[in-house]
Amino acid sequence: MPAHYDLLIRNGTCVLPWGVEATDVGVRQGRIAALGVPADATGDATIDAKGLHVLPGLIDPHVHLRDPGDKTVETIPTGTRGAVLGGLAAVFDMPNTAPSIVDAEKLAWKQDYVAQAAWCDMGLYVGGTKTNIPELARLELGKGVCAIKIFAGSSTGDLMVEDDEHLERVMRAGRRRIAYHSEDEYRLQDRKHLFKSGDPYSSHMEWRDEETAFLGTRRLMALARLTGRQAHILHVSTAQELDYLKEFRDLATCEVLVNHLTQVAPDCYERLKGFGVMNPPIRGPRHMEAAWAAINDGTVDTVGSDHAPHPRAKKLLPWPDCPAGLTGVQTIVPVMLNHVNAGRLSLTRLVDLMCAGPARVYGVLGKGRLAAGYDADFTLVDMKRQRKIEESWIVSPCGWTPFAGMEITGWPVATIVRGQPVMREDEVLGAPCGRLVRFLG
Ligand SMILES: [Zn+2]
């Protein structure tokens, strides 16, 4: 009897952990059952991946799906629909919603909701506050929780832990790696008076200057060293931090955003105005070059989109009334594939940054590599496909992207989540099948 599989992916070029190989993949019960499948094997379904690269399902470990919140901006169903259209098999969602995910009750609500409404798998951050520190050790072990997120600066409402005393208490509560937004809140407040309403949009990067980010990271690293607590510095935006973090590889991992690898000041502020405003800000060419150097020397562990939608009308307001944050969950994969085609990184390094990296940093179980027994998550990409990013393609209700008009070479043509094709050639398939990602407790 020839071997039989639920799904066969034939004739593709697979990016395996040990190299790039032309091999067929067999899937059974949502998991990878075989790499290398005999010619006579049969499948309930077969995908012909001739001319395509078969990647492990790509992960965006930094999105804000705004749910609960303003449904005209984004929700979990719409944001995960954008994710699978853009070639992502999993996203990790931030806790600064309305209300924020900061206690067991709200986390339970979100855990249930994901199982009913998400198109891809999800990891959930829980927000640390000054008042929930005693609960953090328990909350970080919740089902689907990827990490505790600390806003050490620049947050909205109650989600902020900016002083050393509370930060140290957070680090001494629990033991998993903590994810940080690192900007020094005191320096931000001190320098606010230097700017006024209606100043150019580029004032954003002058107010939230390099030292604001670097000082935040120095303070966090001092406390991480003192407490021995593992840290993940999200969206590192300065050459100084990338250099400094090399001294802390025993304690700290870090993320760079696709925006900081793609957009540069002053162009982004002149061209995009409010649609170029995000935190930490997009900076000048020196920092973009440093980010690429850090991609290529291995300093950077993960790449994220920091998808943070806002209503178009609010982004049209003058600075600083336009809220900070840009959409990106649907565009991160095409934009990164375009960088691969431009020779800025290899496809294997991209897989390292968007699969193995998140798995290592957050302790993901059973995802992030093409290997027998792992979840059958795949992103199939056509490295030759040319296409322009159009705003009409964006499914986030807010309806805009800062990458509109960008000509891309390299495009995701299928997304498969635990053996289930959820996107094929721009079509979302089936019903929402997302589950919570499993993590090492
Ligand atoms: Zn963010």
Describe it.
The protein is α/β, with parallel strands linked by helices and 441 residues long. It contains 14 helices and 19 strands. It has helices at residues 76-85, 104-117, 136-139, 164-171, 185-191, 203-207, 210-227, 239-244, 258-262, 267-272, 285-296, 312-315, 332-341, 347-362, and strands at 4-10, 13-16, 19-22, 25-28, 31-35, 42-48, 53-56, 58-63, 88-93, 121-127, 145-151, 178-181, 231-233, 252-257, 302-304, 378-388, 407-417, 420-424, 427-428. The strands form 3 sheets. An 8-stranded parallel sheet has the order 8-9-10-11-12-13-14-15. α4 (164-171) packs across α7. The longest helix has 18 residues, at 210-227. The two termini are 41 Å apart. The mean pLDDT is 97. Residues 62, 64, 94, 306, 308 line the site of zinc ion.
